[in-house]
Amino acid sequence: MNDIAASPIVPPPLHQAIPPSTPLGEHPEDRVPIVGVVSGMEAILRHPRRVVFQLREGNAGKMASALFMVTLISGLVYGLVVGTFSGGSQLWMAPVKIFGGLLISALICLPSLYIFSCLSGSRARLGEVGGLVLGLIALTTILLIGFAPVAWVFSQSTSSVALMGVLHLAFWGLATIFGWRFLRNGFAHLSVNSHGALYLWMLIFVLVCLQMTTALRPILGTGDTFFPREKKFFAAHWMDVLEQSGRPAATTQPR
Questions:
Q1: Which of 42, 1, 50 is nearest to 26 (CA)?
Q2: Whose CB has fewer CB within 10 Å in the chain, the N or C terminal residue?
Q3: Global pTM value
Q4: From CA 127, how far away is CA 59, in angstroms rounded?
């Protein structure tokens, strides 16, 4: 009888993390092609290096198209959930405003990001920078879909515009943090020497997105027109919403 105890067989891990110092393209996973919306979603969630590699290797156009479709589908789906709070015309207006607002905010901030990236030592082309911005909003909208069931439950159980606004802003803030991590890691592979300017750009992008929610109001409540008639700063608009929500005699939702 063999008295030597057999050592247990440990199966290899299903997925081994790639060391951050590994240059793009040296790992086989980086070179796996990304085709279609589903493949784009999986890549940006599980293999963000693959997205950056595809952008850098001259496939920025195809990669940007895939990320655009991911953003379109994810943004419209989450916008539909937002629209269920008020129903009616908001079922189509909220998705259009959420997707359009994110895309317009990205386009507004793209030139400044390209300039900041050049000042930070990056050799990224404008198409690559645009692809990274699309990756940021694509990842953000994908994560928002993960929060959509929770948002739907609250939208069907409360009539408070202020509460739903805070909830959606919290979900968007969490999703944007992960989108920022993708952008920062992407620039890390594109020879950025300092991330200080990128942090400044992210602050600008967040402020633009917040102002866009006011410029395209109402997104949660109801209104007579697609666009508001009055110009407002987003902080002033939020204060007005909180004031009106606190009035017991209020019978209409603020715009």
A1: 50
A2: N
A3: 0.82
A4: 10
Between the alpha carbon of residue 194 and those of residues 59, 122, 183, the distances in Å are: 26, 9, 14
Rounded Cα distance between 85 and 153, Å, is: 10
**H or E segment and range at residue 129:** helix 126-155
Six-digit token pair at 73? 């589908």
> What angle do the packed helices 90-119 and 126-155 form, to 10 degrees?
150
Distance CA 180, CA 109 (A): 14
Residue 250 falls inside a structural domain = no
Pair 100, 107: CB distance under 8 Å: no
Please report whether residue 12 resides in a domain. Answer: no
Local structure of 230: helix, strand or coil? coil
pLDDT in tens, 197-220: 889 999 999 999 999 989 988 888
Q: Are 64 and 135 in contact (CB under 8 A)?
A: no
Determine the Cα–Cα distance for residues 25 and 202; give it in Å rounded to an integer. Answer: 27
Whether the per-residue pLDDT at 59 is higher than 90: the answer is no
Residue 15 belongs to a domain: no
Residue-wise pLDDT for 21-30, tens only, equals 565 666 667 7
Residue 25 within any structural domain of the chain: no
Structure tokens at 180: 């920022």
Number of residues written out for the chain? 255
Say if residues 81 and 152 touch (Cβ distance below 8 Å): yes
Residue 13's pLDDT is: 44
The residue range of the domain holding 174 is 30-244
- Tokens 């405003």 belong to 97
